[in-house]
Amino acid sequence: MRGQLLGFLLVTVLVCSENCSGQDYGRRDTDFTVTLTGRTEFPPGIDAFIRTTEQYPCTGYRIRAGVSWESDTLTIAIGGFVRPSPCVPLSAEATGSLYLGDIGSGSYILRIRYRSDTELHRLLINEKDVRVESGPNSFTRLFFGEGP
Predict the structure, then answer these.
(1) Quick check: helix, strand or coil at residue 91?
(2) Region at 43 (left for phi over 0; alpha for psi -120 to 50; beta for the rest)
(3) What is the pLDDT along the chain (148 residues), one digit of tens a residue?
């Protein structure tokens, strides 16, 4: 029995090494606008407001997203959308927001992930100014200023 199980696992691994690409979320179906704003309430820090560029069939679609830190890199992972219930059939963009934390002054990498796409932006933060530097061919537009 144990030998059969090991044989099955070996065949599965060999077949998947050529045909299985892990979880496939499909192609990106929208771009995003991300607006970073300084918080005026407690706790201090920065909020990210996210909006899709595509319209969805119901008003009130929400964006599921999470944030994580690793060294000088802040990652926003967009996990998909939550359909509203009930569905009011008026097309609108999907929206969401995240609290990024009290980042402080410095130079940071902001990584944004959605489906199989990843892009990097540089955030330069000091007491007076926040600058955003984005690379070419990005699927997000990043702004610092007023929220939605």
Answers:
(1) coil
(2) beta
(3) 545 444 444 443 333 333 333 334 567 789 999 999 888 789 888 899 999 999 999 999 999 999 999 999 999 999 999 999 999 999 999 999 999 988 888 999 999 999 889 999 999 888 777 788 887 778 999 888 754 5
Query: How far apart, in whole angstroms, are the C-alpha atoms of residue 97 and residue 51?
Result: 9
Phi, psi of 11 (to 5 degrees): -65, -40
Q: How far apart are CA 64 and CA 23, in angstroms?
A: 18
Beta bridge mates, 59: 88
Strand ranges, E, within 1-148: 32-38, 46-52, 62-70, 73-82, 95-101, 106-114, 117-125, 130-134, 140-144
pTM for the predicted model, two decimal places? 0.76
Q: How far is CA 68 from the centre of its chain?
A: 11
